[in-house]
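ok so i was messing around last nite and threw this chain in just to see what happens. nothing serious, just curious
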Amino acid sequence: MAAPQPRAPTDADAAIRLSAITKTYDSGVLALGPIDLSVGRGEFVSLLGPSGCGKSTALRLIAGLATPSSGSIEVAGQVKPPRGGPAIGFVFQEPTLMPWASVAANVALPLELAHTPADETAQRVAAALARVELSEFALAYPRELSGGMKMRVSLARALVTDPDILLMDEPFAALDEITRFRLNDDLLALWRDLGKTVLFVTHSVFESVYLSQRVVVMSPRPGRIAAEFVIDAPEPRGEAFRTSADYAAQCRDVSAALAATGGTRGLG
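result:
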């Protein structure tokens, strides 16, 4: 299945819309904004910026895990959506798995909290684990898994409710490069197959350019949108794109924009 081509979302097809959003902490520190951002349905967008620029804060505001100080947020056509909800799946930087529970039980948690019938829960957990190629580890425990496998479990848990939107907060940052490359490819395959809207936070220029249809570069705190890039690349992406001169050129352009904000230049 070919990935959709990036385009500027309209009012009718925006899955996420931030309008004049700011976030000020109780200490008085202005962490974010004001920012305006729209993400179209089925689009894969990365937020790129230095540590502390408000990338993760933006995700938490969208998910309803925090409240903006000013501005408005629309998710799936609803203003100020309730916390969590079936429209949103959240993958955190750490897998946050329950160590005493099996892989299947960890993935089932959102369905159990929603009081989904046991038979349906079992079917949906099995399907989610199959999506991330962990069916044979359903009865394993987190201590028996590698870092990459734990992150797959976290992704399966986010997918098990069949959300329209995936919010991903630097999910692969702690992994080794080989594992990270493979999970990047697997995530793109899932995105193409499932047609989800993905908003992905990263501090890696390489990762943002490889994964995204659009890269949004943020300035240091208070985080604002400094630049946007449409990533022009053939689909499906793979090793040929990762090793191409075009990929390297687009990484340089994004890196230069990041450096111009006063943020860290590092491409890693």
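not much to say yet. The beta strands are 14-24, 30-40, 44-48, 70-75, 78-79, 88-91, 165-169, 197-202, 214-218, 225-230.
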